[in-house]
Design the sequence.
């Protein structure tokens, strides 16, 4: 199936990157964009429409990054565009309450079984950070549990990795995070209830919150045993610990009510992100009315934001969530995602390539591995990333854009029609042939 491809033109992106390197650290405003793990010049995008994006050199790609997830309806969706323009014409920010906050708030509260109140912020990082402060405020406890392989934004106490040996006390994973902060974070392996039990016994009555991505999607897609997630719920209930589901990726993506609805597990606190802004900067945290009553001005846990609930972002979010509530939306997302995965696996299976594709809803992750399941970050073979780097380049040359790291997941949007999926399958198969022929 392999058809040799010419490399895409990158002249404009190269020039832009030369300039941006002088302006921004590493030339970018968020590290993964620098193409560090796949090599080559990052592509500077200029336009998106539906499932396609175009870079500064005019190359067109089918986009499976979708701005890292939020664009579940694809680029420049007409209804979102219309609502954004309408909001902009009325003024972009007031620093007062607006009707639009009520609209987006109602869409979430009225259709999510585990949310009674929500507070809007401007990013997923802010959502996770605020949710943790809330949990500490509610319980009067300090320590938090996080799981190795989950990402919750660049919050000091969450930029923490497992300590050495059997120690559960974390150590900071970024310069600039004081070890004293890291010491408040207990880092545990995913999918290991025994480890959670031991830790909870050791730090009894000190743990405020257990934070987890219920569908961990930041270090590959580490599908957890359902019994593990239910086990966390039981331990939290027994020990008076709040269970925080960080649904920045999974929320409104695998189902309107996210992984909580998908698995039927009630979290105590939820963090949401980008997807609720329809492509504008929005995050939120949410819980029962009783728990949310602890937040200022109702209660003593302080949290605020000048641009929180920004009207333009609220309008975009409301337009997007309204579309997601259409009957059959998620079923069709899953169907087209399965079509993509089946199409690629049919070819790679026949050819005997060591490729697996893990998936939940319209999230997918390509793993070069023979393992039936990968549930922990330690089960990912770092050497397998060399395959991904080659595949990434081969796909770019065939008009397919994946996020530039083998640890990142891909996303299918409603704009990825059957025809576009079939075009993508053809490109994936040809790119895989190129990768494995060269070995
Ligand atoms: C699960 C999860 N939580 C939090 C964040 C942080 O969100 P943001 O980048 O909007 O700050 C991310 C970002 O990808 C995420 O995937």
Sequence:
């Amino acid at each position: 199936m392999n058809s040799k491809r010419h490399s895409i033109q990158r002249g404009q992106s190269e020039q832009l990157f030369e300039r941006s390197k002088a302006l921004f650290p590493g030339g970018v405003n968020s590290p993964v964009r620098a193409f560090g793990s796949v090599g080559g010049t990052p592509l500077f995008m200029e336009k998106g429409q539906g499932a396609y994006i175009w870079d500064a050199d005019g190359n067109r790609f089918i986009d499976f990054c979708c701005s890292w997830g939020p664009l579940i309806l694809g680029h420049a969706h007409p209804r979102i565009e219309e609502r954004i323009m309408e909001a902009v014409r009325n003024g972009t920010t007031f620093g007062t309450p607006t009707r639009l906050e009520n609209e987006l708030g109602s869409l979430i509260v009225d259709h999510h079984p585990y949310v009674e109140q929500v507070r809007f912020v401007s990013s997923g990082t802010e959502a996770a950070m605020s949710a943790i402060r809330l949990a500490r405020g509610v319980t009067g406890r300090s320590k938090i549990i996080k799981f190795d392989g989950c990402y919750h934004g660049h919050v000091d106490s969450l930029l923490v990795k497992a300590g050495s040996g059997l120690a559960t006390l974390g150590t900071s994973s970024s310069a600039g995070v004081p070890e004293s902060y890291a010491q408040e974070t207990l880092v545990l392996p995913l999918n290991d209830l025994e480890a959670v039990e031991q830790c909870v016994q050791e730090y009894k009555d000190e743990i405020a919150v257990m934070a987890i991505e219920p569908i961990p999607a930041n270090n590959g897609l580490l599908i957890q045993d359902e019994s593990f997630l239910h086990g966390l719920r039981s331990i939290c209930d027994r020990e008076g610990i709040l269970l925080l589901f960080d649904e920045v990726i999974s929320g409104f993506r695998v189902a309107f009510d996210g992984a909580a609805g998908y698995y039927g597990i009630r979290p105590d606190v939820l963090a949401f992100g980008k997807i609720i802004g329809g492509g504008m900067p929005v995050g939120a945290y949410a819980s029962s009315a009783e728990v949310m009553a602890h937040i200022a001005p109702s209660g003593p846990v302080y949290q605020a934001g000048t641009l929180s609930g920004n009207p333009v972002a609220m309008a975009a979010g409301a337009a997007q969530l309204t579309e997601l509530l259409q009957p059959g939306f998620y079923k069709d997302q899953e169907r087209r995602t399965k079509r993509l995965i089946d199409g690629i696996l049919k070819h790679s299976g026949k050819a005997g390539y060591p490729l697996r594709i893990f998936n939940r809803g319209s999230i997918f992750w390509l793993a070069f591995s023979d393992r039936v399941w990968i549930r922990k970050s330690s089960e990912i073979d770092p050497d397998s990333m060399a395959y991904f780097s080659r595949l990434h380049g081969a796909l770019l040359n065939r008009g397919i854009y994946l996020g530039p790291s083998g640890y990142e997941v891909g996303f299918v949007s409603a704009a990825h029609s059957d025809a576009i999926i079939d075009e993508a399958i053809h490109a994936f198969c040809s790119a895989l042939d190129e990768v494995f022929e060269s070995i």
Notes: The longest strand covers residues 207-212. The chain has 13 helices and 16 strands.
